[in-house]
Amino acid sequence: APSQRNSAPCCCSYSTLKAWLPILSWLPKYNLKWLKMDVLAGLTVGLTTVPQALAYAEVAGLPVQFGLYSAFMGGFIYTFLGTSKDVTLGPTAIMSLLCSSVVGGQPHRAVLLSLLCGLIQAVMALLRLGFLLDFISFPVIKGFTCAAAVTIGFGQVKNILGIQGVPQQFFLEVYYTFHKIPEARIGDVVLGLICLALLVTLMFMKSSLTSDSDSTCSMYARKVVWAVATMRNAAVVIAASLIAFSWEVYGNHVFTITGKTTRGLPPFRPPPTSDTTANGTVVSFGEIVKDFGGGLAVIPFMGLLESIAIAKAFASQNDYRIDANQELLAIGVTNIMGSFVSAYPVTGSFGRTAVNSQTGVCTPAGGVVTSVIVLLSLAFLMPAFYYIPKASLAAVIICAVAPMVDYRVVAKMWRIRKLDLLPFFVTFLMSFWAVQYGIVGGIAVSGALLLYSMARPQIEVTDHGVLVMELSSGLSFPATEYLSHIIHTRALQVSPPRSVVLDCSHVSVIDYTVISELRDLLRQFKLREVHLIFAGLQPSILKVLLAADLEGFRHNHSVDEALQMESRNLLDD
Fold first, then answer.
1. pTM of this structure
2. CA distance 40 to 394
3. Which part of the chain is the STAS domain (predicted)?
4. I need a surface site. Which of 9, 38, 84, 198 has the fewest CB within 10 A?
5. Which bin fits 280, alpha (ψ -120 to 50), beta or left (φ > 0)?
């Protein structure tokens, strides 16, 4: 008996440990087959990650090595803390755009932003605040992702054209890009268009392979085409770099290349908590945080939203479940630890997660292999990155963000609920001004629509000799004035006054303000010698109303019963 009592707490503590460290649930069952599949998936994703990380650093306005600094910590951390076998954490187009808008291309601030975002995300996970993400509606998310795709994609046109001196602000960027077209470099334009054409062709080849199962191609040929198409980003960037190198060797500067990058692995050190301007002025931690402004709220939320949406999608597709709060913790810890290796904020990547899933990854350990590929690139390949043409990275980014422009969603919202187009377009249009304002504006409009629906609940009024008013949802304080207005205009202010049966069968929420208003309504009905009868009350609501001790309160189990009783009262009168 004593041993049984002692084993129970041990069992409970181990279950708790497994909840906080999901690696303990799959590591004891790990086998050679899983290892082979994880290594294959990790290698494939790694070859996709390296060129994308370099390209996304450009979007963030940072030196290209910061993309790689941000791409390896997630694989290690997520292996221990993640609950999805498919998700890969690292730089993404949206997070890079948000980072650029907040830190303005200053590396030290980007690293500090990663630390602060990670702390916010980790605290949200520990306090189980993941439900707050539910208040960001689908139209807001879609409006933002569409605007982000347009902003990011158009922002790379200058690199395809090889023009310099274009400002970051979207509207000025559009103006100056067109204004400087005569300055375009022929080499960059030709190389950029060829890279775009190759990437699009390989993308369509891959999609045709997955959709055309009856193809006459041999299995070996299909595998080769699939492998090349999957690693198309790396293949195109390597080919473009070789072309640029061959021209540079002979002294022909035909292409705009990445140029000198910092070699080697980043040092492991605490993120800077202050900054120094070009003229030597020291900017304190408080001033930096103040400069971050609303971005410090928007970036952690968007990072969580993007990653959890991806995790849920692939969990549903591959038939397993994730823990949303544990995912928050994994992202938060990744950003905290990433800040010690000069990373900027990261989140889950849809494209790389899709590659991971399609390659057959079995556990989150595939992320370790991907991280090792990134570290090897940092250790040994940085000199080669000198020759990467910016036009090839621009082509990679444009092809990555193009699928995010989902124009069909507008038609769907028009058919289902036209009012949803309002937060969509507010978010979409405001995001061109400043991305964080677009998200905040969209959330504000969505919140206003939600509050309006609470303040103006649907009330169906039918006449059965006695008025029956059916409430379609809960009764909370914003709705009291509207309910009172309907009852006064339809029953109390007519001549003669009429009794009302209030059908509350759909009401599951009621608050003190409503109770106060009902007390006043019952008094008004009594003064006019008519009745307000409640029908279909749920037990919890009935208990609250009885506890309120409302004078003249009458209730029946159903509307029919209330109508019969009121009809008898009218006959008796």
1. 0.77
2. 27
3. 465-573
4. 9
5. left
